[in-house]
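Chain X:
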Amino acid sequence: MLKLFWPAIILTTISLLIDFKNVSEKMIFLILTLTGIIGASYTGYFFQHYFLALVPPLAILAIPKKQITVFIPIIITSLLLYSWSNISNRWKKDLLYIPDHSKIIAAQIKGLGGGQLFVASGVHATYIYLNQLSPTAYVQPVNYIDPFFSKNFSVDIQRVLKEIEAVPFIQWCNPIPLENAKGNESINQEFISPLQLMVKEKYQKLQTELEECSLYKKTYLK
């Protein structure tokens, strides 16, 4: 969160310290900021887009009500530094070529004749490349693979397993191979144990271009 919002947080702090007017109004936006932080961090995951709700209250708080000339160059300098940091990070990603896992997996499935995919682990954008909807009611794999998510959102694991029975392809992109996932506390064992059994009995493991990605193709059609 600090990496994403440090300019706004710094400017908000300065604004609050130098401008003591409209305290009740500022308290409202401080409460909105705090509730936004609680809502974004509740899941235990801290993806940047979870914190977009902080942008409006922080942006309003960052601007002092009274005119202070010295504040303008501080704002400009902070924004320039922040922008350069993000641009340079993007350049690094492009120059180092971080592969698009979803695009690669989708291309492999199309090369095998196509078919419905189930993303058991990894980026679910593969559905988009294949122009498909998720075969389950839960699009994001974290909903059923993560024990924290699964418990707090009351995910019906048996329903997920029922919905993927006829799926010809299963994607598994994870540092932990599917075959070694049993007993790992970071993975929902209620989901992984029957998935492993299903894959072992009905699927063939295929090689992919990606070190941490496996694609499973159904061989048992019933």
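Chain Y:
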Amino acid sequence: MLDALIIGSGYLGSCLKKQFKNVQSSSLDQAGDFCFSLEDSPFEILPKAKTLIISCSIEKMGVRAEGFAEFAKNHYQKCILISTASLFKVTQANEIITDDHPLKAEHPRAINESYFRSFSALLYCGLLWDDHLRQPQKWLPRIKNGAKHVNLCKIDLVAHICRLISEISDFPPGPYVCSDTQALTWSDIADRSQHTLNSETAGIESKILSPQKLQSLFKSKIDWNSFVYCVKKEPK
């Protein structure tokens, strides 16, 4: 039996895979250990594992999502579903979002993920980044309002949290906000990179994530400061 089975071998899935020794990942092509489509493939072809990690969106699964949730519940000791903090329903600018904050109830992805909620850890992640491929300072030319908050979540932090969850036998299921706790504005990021952005009053597109439960559960296991965004100087 595998220690972990990861659905998805893309940007996130590849990083998660490095956290485990006895692990396999699926993909739609040859990037993973075997081919599997959430929308089309039979669930029975999935290998046995202690922990199932779903690293890609299940939004397009439609009616299959409920069946997949039932299969996961019956065949895996633990399930982790990685989602996005964009699913939180925001009603005012710079609203503080905690773990049990309401979701956009009519969103197809939120509906499909709700079937997993009673037995899975659902990680609602901020904007994923890393030191090489997805660097926040490189996105600055596309940002129109520097006053908007951006909740960064280093991909290494997500991977580390997934491994820790897999190691805790009685880890409580439910929703978890996942971010680095900083809630910078895009202007903050621009200042660190010696850029300037136009700033206007932010609307409901601006929110502040507060990962209270993860910080409490892993207060002695994670140095959150080590996953905070900083601008690294390019070698000369």
